[in-house]
Design a protein that fits this description.
Layout (H helix, E strand, L loop, with lengths): L8 H27 L4 H16 L2 H12 L6 H6 L8 H26 L2 H9 L4 H29 L3 H6 L10 H10 L3 H31 L37 E9 L2 E9 L3 E5 L6 H9 L6 E6 L2 E5 L4 E2 L7 E4 L11 H5 L8 H14 L15 H14 L4 E5 L7 H18 L3 E4 L3 H6 L3 E6 L2 E7 H6 L4 H6 L4 E7 L4 E4 L4 E4 L10 E4 L5 E3 L6 E14 L3 E8 L12 E6 H6 L1 H6 L2 E6 L3 E4 L1
Parallel strand pairs: 3-9, 3-10, 7-8, 8-9
Antiparallel strand pairs: 1-2, 1-4, 4-5, 5-6, 10-11, 12-13, 12-15, 13-14, 15-21, 16-20, 17-18, 17-20, 18-19
Helix pairs in contact: 1-5, 1-7, 2-5, 5-7, 6-7, 7-10, 9-10, 13-14, 14-15
């Protein structure tokens, strides 16, 4: 306290505000980081309490603090025994300023943290970075603009604190008289020129603080979020081919034994996730409708979310076991993650992104592996650029290189190509297929695209509402889906409920067609399906087909390569009722050859033998 005897209001205010802001910054960061993870009433209650100093009248807050910290208060009495006197002292000035600065610091940091892409920290953990390194290398650099803005706003607010300071610290010249109190004292004494001097200093300081806020916010806008649009395509360099030249690809690596076993149980409100699998397939694709639990499964496997019960085992290593209380953190699971958006770290160069998971290696080895991986994806020339300077395809290639360079035991792909156009998507599929094969890294792919799943997997796992519907080799699942949901998810567009007319005779109710089968179907079969690309449309019956039906065309939808033709049978059995159109997919060349036949009269719809899908 003696150190501040006789200080001018300006120096006293600058010192008090600076110390107050330094004190509340760690507390504000910790509070914001915790609250951003909360939802509902818990979040609302925390916000109410932490922001209350901002909305309470300063004199009320000062009175409460005075009662708590006074000589006979619940906190002041123990401090007095230790020889510490808080009220009417310079520490009380700092405390008053800190109470005023904290809400602004907390709220600004909370907004900055909530603007972070939630996938960035998870991806960093999956690349082997522990919580401290993630905070130091990813979280802190990305929230620095918000932190700077919070410091500036908090400092400005601390400089202007009046009511709480007056109640708790008093207006003691040279000891607790800050600039606002000095202005008050000058006006009270009728010394208006001196009041204007103090007022000018406050206005100047606050103007500087607000200028810093704008500076920090503009810097934050330049750090684009990963999902934001990239640089102007018109000024973007010509994209390099998505497929790297063969000479740049790494050599083929021998396949090591692989085994993934899990039995997981999780509840999110009314959603129940109960899924078990035991597979040695190195390329597995997961199909399912939105909300089926596909991304949740990847988060559970990667350790980004903890299951309520179950077990995960990868190549003999137990990653999670609820009964034993074992839960390896993401950085120790050796499971890399590639998300729908690339989740590149926007403040790091492409080379630094790719090498992020290699921090444990010597610099020379790390640089060599990064260079080789960048060459494999054709990004050598972009190594020093930042993610916002890349095209969408280049960003995805950088994310793929970052995931593969660590040589993980398993690579999780969460719809990595869904944001790409058709041409770029196909080229990236080729690149993923080639690099994954050469690296020998097993993959687990989540996708809505049946063709993508078929190209990039050996087995298909179909799930819905957190439950397993079908699992097997991709061709077997495609040709024998077994259930209506699986058939739809694998692209079957013609599905009808059936009525049994005899041991081997069925009626497809949706189309009004009677079907004669070579052998009876299982009793559980209640529907049948016909894939649109299996059906044939011609002027006469196609030889060798199992069924033929005269039909007429009701609508045609033309695409660049294929034509979808909607047809209805010409004659339906008595009492069949209205029928739904049947979709037939033909190549444009085949449809063009049918032009005259369509004009001449009815066509014949043929279904080849073995192409009728019995469905439960």
């Amino acid at each position: 306290m003696e150190a501040v005897q006789g200080l001018s209001p300006l120096v006293l205010s600058l010192r008090s505000a600076a110390l107050a802001v330094l004190l509340v910054t760690p507390a504000g960061f910790l509070a914001a980081d915790r609250v951003r993870r909360w939802r509902g009433a818990r979040r609302a209650t925390a916000d109410l309490l932490l922001l209350s100093p901002l909305v309470l009248p300063p004199t009320v807050l000062g009175f409460v603090l005075l009662q708590l910290l006074g000589r006979y208060g619940p906190l002041g009495e123990p401090l007095a025994r230790l020889g510490l006197e808080m009220v009417f002292s310079w520490p009380a000035t700092v405390l008053s300023a800190a109470m005023a600065a904290f809400p602004l610091m907390y709220r600004t940091l909370l907004a900055s943290l909530e603007q972070l892409d939630p996938g960035l920290e998870g991806v960093a953990r999956s690349l082997g970075a522990g919580p401290w390194r993630v905070w130091r290398r990813i979280t802190l650099p990305l929230v620095l603009p918000g932190l700077g803005a919070g410091l500036s706003l908090g400092y400005a607010r601390a400089l202007g604190e009046f009511g709480t300071t007056l109640m708790l610290a008093g207006n003691i010249p040279g000891r607790t008289q800050t600039l606002p109190l000095a202005i008050y004292a000058a006006v009270d004494a009728g010394d208006l020129p001196q009041a204007w001097v103090w007022t000018g200093q406050v206005l100047l300081l606050n103007g500087l603080c607000l200028g810093l806020v704008q500076l920090f916010l503009s810097r934050g806008r330049r750090l684009r979020r990963p999902g934001a649009p990239t640089a102007d395509p018109a000024r973007e360099p010509p994209p390099t081919p998505a497929m790297a030249p063969p000479a740049a690809l790494p050599p083929l690596r021998p396949r090591t034994p692989f085994r993934l076993r899990f039995d997981l149980h999780q509840r999110h409100g009314d959603f129940r996730f109960d899924l078990a699998l035991d597979t040695s397939c190195r390329q597995l694709a997961i199909l399912g409708p939105s909300g089926a639990g596909k991304s949740l499964l990847l988060r559970l496997l990667a350790g980004l979310e903890r299951p309520q019960a179950g077990r995960i085992e990868l190549n003999g290593r137990v990653l999670f076991d609820a009964e034993r209380g074992l839960d390896l953190p993401p950085e120790r699971r050796r499971i890399a993650v590639m998300l729908q958006h690339d989740a590149l770290f926007p403040h790091l160069s492409v080379a630094a992104n790719v090498g992020f998971g290699l921090a444990h290696l010597p610099p020379a080895e790390r640089h060599a592996r990064v260079a080789a991986q960048l060459a494999a994806v054709g990004l050598q020339e972009q190594a020093r650029r930042f993610p916002a300077q890349l095209s969408g395809g280049q960003q995805q290639r950088a994310a793929l290189a970052r995931a593969l360079v660590t040589e993980p035991d398993l690579l999780l792909l969460d719809e990595p190509l869904s944001s790409q156009d058709a041409h770029r998507r196909r080229r990236l599929q080729q690149l993923i297929e080639e690099l994954v094969a050469r690296s020998g890294v097993p993959t687990l792919l989540v996708t809505h695209d049946m063709e993508e799943a078929y190209r990039l997997s050996e087995e298909l796992l179909v799930i819905d509402r957190g439950a397993l519907l079908r699992h097997g080799p991709r061709r077997e699942v495609f040709e024998h889906p077994g259930a209506v949901t699986v058939a739809r998810l694998t692209g079957c567009k013609n599905i009808s409920a059936v009525q049994r007319l005899g041991p081997t005779r069925l009626r497809a109710l949706a189309w009004g067609l009677d079907l004669e089968l070579p052998k009876p179907l299982e009793a559980a079969v209640r529907h049948v399906g016909m894939r649109a690309n299996h059906l044939e449309l011609a002027a006469a019956p196609v030889s060798g087909a199992a069924h033929h039906w005269p039909c007429r065309v009701t609508r045609v939808s033309e695409g660049p390569l294929h034509v979808t033709v909607f047809v209805v049978p010409e004659a339906s059995p008595a009492g069949a009722g209205p029928v739904e159109p049947i979709l037939v997919e033909l190549r444009r060349r085949v449809w063009g050859a049918l032009g005259q036949a369509v004009a001449a009269g009815p066509l014949v719809l043929s279904l080849p033998a073995g192409c009728l899908l019995p469905l439960r």
